[in-house]
Amino acid sequence: MNPWIYSDGGRAAAGFKGETGDCVTRAIAIATDMPYREVYDLVSSYSRIERLRKRQKRQSRARTGVYRQTKDRILNELGWTWHPTMGIGTGCRVHLRADELPSGRLIVKLTKHSCAVIDGVIHDTHDPSRDGTRCVYGYWTQPKDE
After folding, report:
1. Most CB within 10 Å of its CB: which of 13, 19, 73, 90?
2. Gyration radius (Cα) of the chain, Å
3. Each residue of 87-116: pLDDT tens digit?
């Protein structure tokens, strides 16, 4: 069983109620240790300058979903580094397990979900690991100076 800790990233403390699809906002808040409201506002500001594309018919929303390009832009600006773990035709090589991920603060990209992993422990509102079989597409690592 993978270690997992319930965390809403400070969503409830920021005054938000109910459940929603805010996994990117929550993962960034947890991994960067930024206040949820600050991350929510940051994602909202980046979504306002998004260009709509053929496959992107609406803008990202901090509360209901963030497109990859917007998430990438935000994390790049925060100084985080992307590490892909899967390519086209390579199959799954890394799973959401402590022994297959590096230590430190990570934001992990999964199928239709992102979560924070801190020193091998998943921090999320649920355990997305599927008992260690969930495939990781890649992960972001924090800047070296932190």
Report:
1. 73
2. 15
3. 888 889 999 999 999 999 999 999 999 999
CA distance 66 to 80: 17
- Tokens encoding 4: 């997992």
**From CA 115, how far away is CA 123, in angstroms rounded?**
7
Classify strands 113-118 and 121-124 as parallel, antiparallel or unpaired: antiparallel
CA distance 67 to 16: 22
Question: Could you give the CA distance from residue 5 to residue 82 in angstroms, rounded to a whole number?
Answer: 24
pTM summary value: 0.90
What single letter denotes the amino acid at residue 103?
S
